[in-house]
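One record is given unchanged without comment:
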Amino acid sequence: MGTILVVDDDLTQQLIVFKILKNIGLNIIFADDGLQALEQAQRCCPDLVILDILLPKMNGYEVCRRLKSDKKTQKLAVIMCSNKKEDCDHYWGIKQGADAYIAKPCHPQELVNIVQYFLAEGIISQFVPTTGSETVTISAELVATAD
């Protein structure tokens, strides 16, 4: 179905995301820090990146900015997934180019839904979380391009 790059320095979090997404037939690759994330994105050409913010060597905001400014990776969907739950964190993630922001811990079905949403033919159309959660933010630029 697709390849997902999971960027998180927490092995437990990597395992959780792996178990959730492997069940829907996705290939998962990992990076433990920001620099490794950029290398993996260039080498493996994933379909989507799930990106933590607090990372060694380079934080997720900078990784996102670099992915979105590189012609080879700029169309790559980036979902920031972090323990940082304040409104300013969501705002800053989207401002750096993230296509969506979800707060940890997220419900497994919420993660599946948002990943499937971005993988579905690369079309930005409609996304309504199945839970009443307000932790999901989708970039206003993407919503505008869908109209």
